[in-house]
Every structure is written in C-alpha cells, then in structure tokens.
Design brief:
The complex is a heterodimer of chains A (537) and B (61).
Chain A: H1 16-19, E1 25-31, H2 35-46, E2 51-54, E3 68-70, H3 71-79, H4 83-89, E4 91-92, E5 95-100, E6 103-109, E7 121-123, H5 126-139, E8 144-147, E9 151-157, E10 162-168, E11 171-182, H6 189-193, E12 198-202, E13 207-213, E14 222-226, E15 235-240, E16 245-251, H7 258-261, H8 264-275, E17 282-289, E18 292-296, E19 300-301, E20 304-306, E21 312-313, H9 321-340, H10 350-374, H11 379-394, E22 440-443, E23 446-449, E24 458-463, E25 471-474, E26 477-484, E27 489-490, H12 494-499, E28 506-509, E29 515-519, H13 524-534
Parallel strand pairs in A: 1-2, 1-11, 2-8, 5-14, 11-20, 24-26
Antiparallel strand pairs in A: 3-7, 4-7, 5-6, 9-10, 10-11, 12-18, 13-16, 13-17, 14-15, 15-16, 18-21, 19-20, 22-23, 22-27, 24-28, 25-26, 28-29
Chain B: H1 12-23, H2 28-46, H3 49-60
Classes of the chains: A alpha+beta (537), B mainly alpha (61).
Bound molecules: flavin-adenine dinucleotide.
Chain lengths: 537, 61
C-alpha cells in the first residue's frame, strides 16, 4: 500500500504527578485526543478553562474515516484557528451526480449561498484535520496539557469530582478531576464505566471502504451509484480528497466475509470495474465496516459529560459523525465555563443533554432514512426505491425523494428551554435556537465577518444606533452590545436580509452563536429576562 | 377538505379497463414497478401530507 501521508508520532512524556506518585485534582480532564477531544480542549482554552487531554494512542486518526466537513462545524473550527488551514488543504466541491444502473439519474449543485466566510462543504482526510488541531493545541500549551499514551482504565464518581485510574508505559496512576469530558469514541470505556445505555439500530450490511491514490481526470464531484453494472444490486460512491486520494465506497451485503473482501485479489477487480481498466491507481487503505445508528441515553452523568462518537454513532451517509460532534462541543463548553465559575447552576448542563440529544436524534433520523433508501430492507421498499430512481431521470418531482445521503445541516434547538419564545413577528430563518448565519461586515474600516466578531460571551445585536450601553448585565452575566450601522457595518445588506433587521430589532445571541431571543424594540427588562433564561435561571 | 372517498371518476369502466389493459402483458416485476411509479406520481400530484397519510392508512387497514 502507498501512503501519501506520514503519521506523526507524538512523544509520550511521564507526568510529574505520576513520577511523584501524588494524586492531583484538576479542573477538567478530556478523555480522547480524537477530533472531538482536541476540539473540546481548544474551545476550553478559548473560554479560559485549563484542561488535560488523555489519549491511549500517540498519533492522529488512522484508516479511512471522516471526509466531508460542513459549513457550521467549519465556522466553529474557525474560531479555534484551524479552519483556514483545512479549507486551504481541503477539496471544495459542489456538484453531485446520482447514477442508476448505467445511466445518470440526476445531478445536483449545492449552490452555496454567497456571503459566508466558510464554504458549504469541503473534503479532507480526518488525519489532516486532527493534525491541524494538535498543532493548535500545542500552541496553547499554557492552557492545554496533551498527554499521549495515557489510557483511562477505570473511574469512580464522587459528588463533586471523579477519580480515574490511568495507565501509561510507566504503569498505572490515579488522577482526579472536577469535570470529565468523555470523547473516547464509539467504543467509549467511560460510557461503559458509568453503565450508560447506548442503543439504536445496527444495519445488517457491510461496506468496503477504500482510499486510492490516482491522478485520473475524474471531476471533483460526488458520484453515487445505485445498482451499477459494475457492482450489481449494491451501491457505490466515489469522492475526491486532498493529495489525489479518492474515497471509494462499495456496499457489500450482509453475507460478505469481511476477511476475504479486503484481500487485494478481491478488492482490485472491484475497483477496476468501477474506475475502468485503463485507470492507474494505488491502494492507500482498505477496510470493511458495519454501520450503526445509536446514541447514549443521557449526555450527562453527574460531572461526566459525553461528546462525539462516545455519545452518538451515525452511519456515514450524510457525513454527520464528526460534524455533529464538533457541534456538541460548541454547545457544551460555554455552559461548563459558567457552571465552573459559579455563574450558573449546574442544571445549565442538563440543557446540554436537552439540546444535543435533540440534535443527535435528528441526525440519527436523517442517517437512518438515507440508509433505508440506499439499502432497502424489504422487497416493497426496493421497488419504491427503484421507481423513484427511474422517475428521477425524467421528472423533477422525484429528485428530492432520492436519498444518497443528506448533507449535514445544524439542527436548530427550536424547543430548547433556554429560548425565549418570539412575541414579535419576524421573517427569515433566525428564530430562537438557530445558529447565527454569517454575513460580511465592515468593522473599524476593515472587511470582516459577523461570526468572527461575536466573541466568546453573550452578545446583544442591535439594528440601529440605540442604546448607549456597551454592555448589559444581569448579576454575574454580561452581554456585549453590538450596534449594526454604528459599531459594525452591514457590508452587503445581508445581515439585514438574514436577520430581518428592521431598524430597532434586537437579537440576544448566546456564546455558541445561537439566537436566544429577538425583539422588535430594545427593552432592557425583556433582554435581561431572556438572558437569565438562556443561562437556565 | 379531506380525502375524497365519493365517486370522482366520470367513466369508471373506462378507467379500470385502461389500467388493466396496460398491465396485461407485463410480468409481475414490471407490474410492481409500474404500480410504484403510479403511486409516486399521484402522491406528488396530491401533495397534501394529511390527505396522503389518510390514504395510506385506509389502504393499510
Ligand atoms: C468510513 C467512515 C466515514 C466517515 N465519514 C465522515 C464524514 O465524511 N464526515 C463526518 O463528519 N464524519 C464522518 N465519519 C465519522 C467520524 O470519523 C467520527 O464521528 C469522528 O472520528 C468522531 O470523533 P471522536 O473524537 O468522537 O472519536 P474518535 O475519533 O474515535 O476518537 C476517540 C479517541 O479516544 C481515544 N481513546 C479511546 N479510549 C480511550 C481511553 N480509555 N483512554 C484514553 N483515550 C482513549 C482514542 O485513541 C481516540 O483517539 C466517518 C466515519 C467512518 C468510519
């Protein structure tokens, strides 16, 4: 196999506390330096929380894993300083083609909306993403202590802290932490140790995933086949990643022997049949997966919170795993910070479960629907599936029914208890619980973006030049006032359109850049009430 | 206005014959595929989710 990527090996360092055999209490420990654990540490640092990350390994993601990153997670990674590198290295694409048997069934264009800093979607191998996150973590070594080859093997929950047993090349030692963020992946040991339920659906199907290196002139598009001539009665996918690496995905059926399927003598003919026998390529990675859609029963167990695959696992159709895990962190860390600082009661963390379990269920629903379309479970559903695909060749109405994976979109927390229900009439998508749409602005005479200017606390965004106050305070919680047309300029008029920003309109925006409340008039008492509500009071 | 369950087709015998004739020379797979397409085409024409749900329930029970 050929490698276009050299996996970094990070050094194991024995900690002072292990060497001195001294049990220390830490404010926050993150278990797992995968994509989500690393994101959590950076978001903690941004909010001024010191953290330690423990990882049982010493490198970044190995094998064929996440490829597609959507706009919202990129926006979150942008405030952590890694999105620019990802976008630069990643592959931007917008056209997708769906084939049924030998014919093109239809073609779509993501038609990315203008006026957002981040693209709708990029493709990038997961190891690059993690490497960039590690680089950024190392730049924050004053706030983040990243410890490789530290495996959590057991834990005990106490009222206000957790004690851990951690194994390193130097043996086992004990640590304590006020808060624990479990990002230890789909087979989470932490989840097992707190006896959490992790239930859902296992799909009785197997997929062969291959990453191949080739210089062939396939366009930078997502190609998806239903029942192609080169792989009858199954589905297949072709998608470009960085460094001329392509992701190939073959549905294999439940009866496939996973050990046999990955043997080169079986893989090569399959790939040649897909790409054409004249196309030269090298295999980079081949593996076989069975997919599942399931989630933890509660994202919070006292002082232990779960995020990423440890909390939910989705089938890869629609590229949701990492995308949604990053949004878990977006939701969690500001709440944790307020609780740690005694500015909010620890019940605020229950809203983490409320909001992110809601989002996880939405993702599970979407992934299950895609999986049901791609791999029909009964004769009847296969007939309908094929009818949809045939009709989609000719008729527009059938195309939205084709489901080869819906792209990951953020789930608005529309029912969240932190929202203040609208009293006034507003147009547009920015209802309470929704993540803020970006827009180009001018600030201090320079071009910029709204999201980059919202900061890490609450914001009161006002259309117009009132009020005079620069901050609004309720007890320990404060919100910075930003006046559009005064402090920042709406460069292309898009803020106005996206937020239905008639003069005088006010938005209360949470630290995770979600709308908490909105009003047509600046009324301080109402804003204060909404602010209290948004921190669970 | 819910699902219309009263007579709505002007010449029932003509309609029925056309449907049956069309499938006369098809094998089972072709019939099933045509039926599925027909359902999808008509559902899209109706569009109203409440009516579709009501019709699906009636067909099942
Ligand atoms: C084929 C495939 C394609 C995918 N495509 C996409 C996609 O296009 N887009 C997308 O968003 N997602 C995709 N995903 C999902 C994505 O890869 C995962 O959601 C993501 O890796 C989850 O990150 P995580 O940090 O939660 O878990 P992981 O990446 O699994 O990281 C967990 C970390 O915890 C460490 N760890 C585990 N146990 C312990 C312990 N006891 N002590 C210390 N450390 C421990 C592990 O070493 C690891 O580093 C895909 C997945 C697959 C398999």
């Amino acid at each position: 196999m050929l490698n276009t990527y050299t996996w970094p090996e990070y050094a194991y360092v024995q900690s002072d506390e292990q060497r001195n055999n001294q049990v220390k209490r830490h404010p926050a420990i993150i278990i797992g330096a995968g994509l989500i654990g690393l994101t959590a540490a950076l978001e903690c640092a941004r909010h001024g929380i010191r953290s330690i990350i423990l990882d049982d390994n010493n490198t970044v993601s190995i094998g064929s894993r996440a490829v597609c990153y959507a706009k919202r997670p990129l926006e979150i990674l942008d405030r952590l300083g890694v999105a620019d590198r990802m976008v630069e290295k990643g592959i931007s694409w917008k056209v997708g083609k769906v084939f049924f048997k030998e014919n093109l069934a239809y073609e779509f264009d993501l038609l990315p909306e203008e006026g957002h800093k981040m693209p709708a979607m990029i493709n990038l191998q997961q190891y690059y993403c993690e490497e960039y996150l590690v680089d950024e973590v190392l730049r924050h070594s004053d706030m983040i202590d990243l410890r490789w080859k530290h495996k959590v093997i057991s834990l005990t929950q106490h009222d206000d802290y957790t004690s851990l047993q951690v194994e390193t090349p130097d043996g086992v030692f004990a640590m304590e932490s006020d808060w624990l963020i479990a990002c230890d992946g789909a087979n989470s040991k932490t989840r097992e140790l707190v006896h959490a339920e992790f239930t859902g659906k296992f799909f009785q199907d197997r997929f062969l995933i291959a990453d191949v290196v080739m210089k062939a002139n396939f366009p930078t598009e997502r190609w998806f086949w239903f029942d192609p001539l080169f792989h009858r009665n199954q589905s297949a996918l072709l998608h470009k990643q960085a460094d001329d690496v392509w992701r190939l995905d073959f549905q294999m059926g439940w009866d496939t022997d996973p050990k046999e399927a990955v043997k080169p003598e079986n893989v090569m003919p399959l790939i040649k049949a897909m790409l054409g026998s004249d196309v030269e390529f090298d295999l980079e990675w081949v593996s076989i997966y069975q997919f599942a859609c399931r989630r933890i029963d509660n994202f919070r167990y006292g002082r232990i919170v779960f995020a990423g695959d440890a909390a939910h696992q989705v089938s890869p159709f629609g590229a949701r795993g990492a995308n949604t895990g990053i949004q878990d962190i977006d939701n969690l860390i500001w709440k944790l910070k307020l609780v740690m600082d005694g500015k909010a009661s620890d019940q605020l963390l229950d809203s983490y479960n409320e909001e992110r379990a809601f989002a996880a269920d939405d993702n599970l629903l979407n992934s299950t629907r895609s999986t049901d379309f791609i791999t029909p479970k009964s004769k009847g559903s296969r007939i309908f599936r094929n009818a949809v695909l045939e009709l989609s060749k000719k008729y527009e109405f059938a195309r939205p029914l084709v489901n080869s994976g819906r792209l990951s979109m953020p789930t608005p927390y529309i029912h969240s208890s932190l929202n203040t229900v609208d009293e006034d009439d507003f147009e547009g998508a920015m209802r309470p619980g929704t993540n803020c749409a970006d827009a180009p602005i001018v600030v201090d005479g320079k071009d910029g973006w709204l999201l980059n200017n919202l900061g890490d606390g609450f914001t009161v965004l006002v259309f117009g030049d009132k009020p005079e106050d620069a901050v609004i305070k309720s007890g320990d919680i404060s919100a910075k006032v930003i006046r559009i047309g005064h402090d920042i300029q709406d460069k292309a008029g898009l803020l106005n359109t996206r937020y239905d920003g008639r003069d005088g309109s006010v938005y209360l925006i949470r630290p995770d850049h979600h709308v908490a409340a909105r009003f047509r008039k600046f009324d301080k008492n109402k804003i204060l009430a909404a602010l209290n509500r948004a921190v669970g009071q | 206005m819910g699902l219309n369950l009263r007579k709505n087709i002007k010449n029932p015998d003509d309609f029925y014959q056309e449907l049956i004739d069309m499938q006369r020379n098809m094998n089972d797979d072709e019939v099933e595929l045509m039926n599925a397409k027909l359902i999808l085409i008509l559902c899209n024409h109706i569009g109203d989710q409440e009516i579709l749900s009501e019709a699906m329930r009636l067909a099942r029970d």
